[in-house]
Structure formats: structure tokens, C-alpha cells
From TrEMBL:
Domain of life: Bacteria
Xref: Pfam families: HATPase_c, HisKA
Source organism of this protein record: Streptosporangium amethystogenes subsp. fukuiense
Protein name (database record): Sensor-like histidine kinase SenX3
Compartment(s) where it occurs, according to its Swiss-Prot or TrEMBL record: Cell membrane
Reactions that this protein is recorded to catalyse: ATP + protein L-histidine = ADP + protein N-phospho-L-histidine
Keyword Kinase among record annotations: yes
Gene Ontology terms for molecular function: kinase activity
Length: 394
């Protein structure tokens, strides 16, 4: 609203100078018709000023007819023909014309984009000249509001997620103090404290990673990344968790694929996908990580992580990449999940100019696929499949 006020002040001042000059020379220029609108009396140069404004701009005459409207105002549906469609704006314009005072407000109009329910505008209405004309400036605030809402939700979620393990550790510390004479109880509660401390560490690490990549900043030191090495590194880091549930981790697909990017970020994304697959799969199953070339001349690399787990309801599949969103909050907390893993995967994919998709069916498992631009020449197909032995983690 402050930026809109400053812009409006500049525009109104510039237009007022034009009006004074026009009146002092006793001239009154006519506009040519625009979009079928009958020409109205406007000072020289007004159309040129309004044409360069980034916000929606409308000039009304004393009878509330539109003399000039920017393309943005028409695109947003604020103006049709020679009529201002927003009743709230029209009411503000009449008040300004009546008392000559500049007014500011915020309004909401029906959405102009597919799937968008409404558009929020910060508006400023000012008198223009002495012929009853009024200038209306409207700035689209929808994306700003959305970002602010996401930021508020993020802060609230982070506060909640941090409070849980910190509160648990505080209670456990008090319990250990009270049970100082019971070695068995001290050992048991100390173990639970270690679990909560690990959970807190994972959350902080995920927050740092997400903060690092979500700003759409370029990767600091990109280079060629060999997919085989990234996959095996990620599988290595997940072996212990998989071994505890007797889940077999299998690597397969095409060897020799490369992308241009950051190997540690790719390993982080794959580790999160594998960790999720293991956490939501029953015991004695397997998780398959495979890579292949896609598109003409292997323009893309696709890395898929498939499990035989519980699957994801169709209604939740559009939201699973949101920060802190959990399909089953109780199960996620029981497995130590932070709710940030898939958000990190999405941002890692975006940082590499790629994308992540999901296929899932309840009771049949899920497949997450990272699709990233390939680097270098054609991949070498290797039909053999490598199974990572779980004994190595034991």
C-alpha cells in the first residue's frame, strides 16, 4: 500500500501539472476512441503516463464513464467497455469526486484466472483536474497475500514442531532428576532424550537445507553429477533404517547418466525419498531406486523411488510437497519425520530446472520420480540390477 501511495502521488502530481498547463493555454484535447469507448476530455500526455504504469489505472469522467483504462485494468476485469465493474471502486470514486479527498482502500473482486476464486487489490483514488475526473489506481496484492499467509503458516508450524521435542526433553530431564536413584529409569529416559534430540537435529538440518534452496538462488558451485554415485550414496545413508525393518533396497536401471548440478543436494533429495519409502512400507518388502534416460537423445534423466507401502490417498497427493503437510500426522511423528522431506525434494528439483512427480495407489505403494535435465552424451544401458546387501549395515 505504501508503494502504491507513492506511485499514486507521483502520477497525480504529474497529471495535475499537465492539467494546469492545459488550462493556462486554454486548450482541451480530445482522445481517440479506445476499445470502443467514446473519447472524453483529457489533458495532453495523460494517456502516455498511464500507459507506463505497472498497476491497473482508470480515469473516470464526471458521469462515471471510463475515459482511459490500462490494459491491466481490462485484463483483471475491472473495466468492460466504458464501465467500471467493481461497485466498491465506483463508490470510492463518487466520494472522491464529491469532497476532493484522496482515498485508499483494499478490495476483493472475482478471480480473473482459471482456478482463482478472487483477486485482492490495494487501491488509491484521487481527483484529477477540475472537470470532475477521477484517477483510480489498483495494485494486485493476491500473490503478496499468498506469500504472507505461507510465511505465517511456516512460522507457526516451525514453532509447533520445535516446541514438541524441546518440551519433551525438558520433561524427560526433570524425570531423570527425580529418578536419580533408579539406574534403570535413568537409562530408559536418557534413551528417550536421545531420540528427541535426534528428532530436533533432523528438523534443524532440514530447515537449514530448505532455507538454502527455496530462495530460487543459483547453485553456488554446480558441476557434472554422476547419477550412479548419487543413488548409491543415498542408499548407503538409508541402509541402517531399512535393515531395522528387513526392507531390501534395490538399485537398477541405466548406468552412466549425468546431470549438471550439486551432488550433495541430489543425494539429500534421494535420501528423503528413500527414507519416506522405508518409513511407510511394511516389513520384509523392498524399495527400488532406478534411473533411466528420457526424451529424444536422452534430454532428461528420470530417477524413480518405488515402494510397496500403504500408498497416498488421491485427495492428498496435490499437497504432499507442502512444508509440514502430513497425510498421517501420528504415523509421521512416530517414524521421526519432520514434514519437510518432500518440500526439500521439490525445491532441489526446481533448483536443477527439473520437477518431481508422484504416482500412488492406496494399498499398492507409491512411486516418486525426479525428472532432471541430462548433461553430456547418450547414456549406456546396463541391464543388470544391483542389490545393496543389508549385511553391510549390520
Amino acid at each position: 500500500m505504501a508503494s502504491l501511495a507513492a506511485l499514486a502521488g507521483f502520477v497525480v502530481g504529474a497529471l495535475a501539472v499537465m492539467v494546469v498547463r492545459q488550462q493556462s493555454h486554454g486548450r482541451r484535447d480530445r482522445m481517440t476512441p479506445v476499445d470502443g469507448v467514446e473519447p472524453g476530455a483529457l489533458p495532453n500526455g495523460v494517456a502516455s503516463v498511464l500507459a507506463v504504469l505497472p498497476s491497473s489505472a482508470v480515469v473516470l469522467d464526471k458521469e462515471d464513464r471510463v475515459l482511459r483504462a490500462s490494459s491491466a485494468a481490462r485484463a483483471f476485469g475491472l473495466v468492460k467497455g466504458e464501465h467500471l465493474m467493481a461497485a466498491e471502486l465506483l463508490a470510492l470514486a463518487r466520494k472522491v469526486r464529491r469532497d476532493g479527498e484522496i482515498r485508499e482502500s483494499e478490495i476483493e473482486v472475482a478471480g480473473h484466472k482459471f482456478g482463482q476464486e478472487s483477486t485482492n487489490f490495494a487501491v488509491r483514488v484521487a481527483p484529477l483536474g477540475s472537470y470532475g475526473q477521477v484517477l483510480v489506481l489498483a495494485e494486485d496484492q493476491t500473490e503478496h497475500r499468498r506469500v504472507e499467509a505461507v510465511r505465517r503458516d511456516f512460522v507457526a508450524n516451525v514453532s509447533h514442531e520445535l516446541k514438541t521435542p524441546v518440551g519433551a526433553m525438558s520433561l524427560l530431564a526433570e524425570t531423570i532428576q527425580d529418578a536419580a536413584d533408579d539406574p534403570e529409569a535413568v537409562t530408559r529416559f536418557a534413551g528417550r532424550m536421545q531420540h528427541e534430540a535426534a528428532r530436533l537435529t533432523y528438523l534443524v538440518q532440514d530447515l537449514i537445507t530448505l532455507s538454502r534452496i527455496q530462495g530460487a538462488e543459483p547453485i553456488p558451485t554446480p558441476g557434472p553429477v554422476l547419477i550412479d554415485e548419487a543413488v548409491h550414496e543415498a542408499v548407503d545413508r538409508c541402509n541402517t533404517t531399512a535393515a531395522a525393518k528387513d526392507i531390501t533396497l534395490v538399485c537398477g536401471g541405466v548406468e552412466g547418466l549425468r546431470i549438471w548440478g550439486d551432488d550433495e543436494l541430489l543425494v539429500t533429495a534421494l535420501r528423503n525419498l528413500i527414507d519416506n519409502a522405508v518409513a511407510y512400507s511394511p516389513e520384509h518388502t523392498r524399495v527400488v531406486v532406478s534411473a533411466r534416460g528420457a526424451g529424444p537423445n536422452t534430454e532428461y534423466v528420470e530417477i524413480s523411488v518405488s515402494d510397496q507401502g500403504i500408498g497416498i490417498p488421491e485427495s492428498a497427493q496435490e499437497r504432499i510437497f507442502e512444508r509440514f503437510f502430513r497425510v498421517d500426522a501420528a504415523r509421521s511423528r512416530a517414524t521421526g519425520g519432520t514434514g519437510l522431506g518432500l518440500a526439500i525434494v521439490k525445491h532441489v528439483a526446481a533448483a536443477h530446472n527439473g520437477a518431481v512427480t508422484v504416482w500412488s495407489k492406496e494399498g499398492s505403494g507409491s512411486t516418486f520420480t525426479l525428472r532432471l535435465p541430462a548433461f553430456g552424451g547418450m547414456a549406456v544401458a546396463v541391464p543388470a540390477t544391483t542389490t545393496i546387501p543389508l549385511e553391510a549395515a549390520q
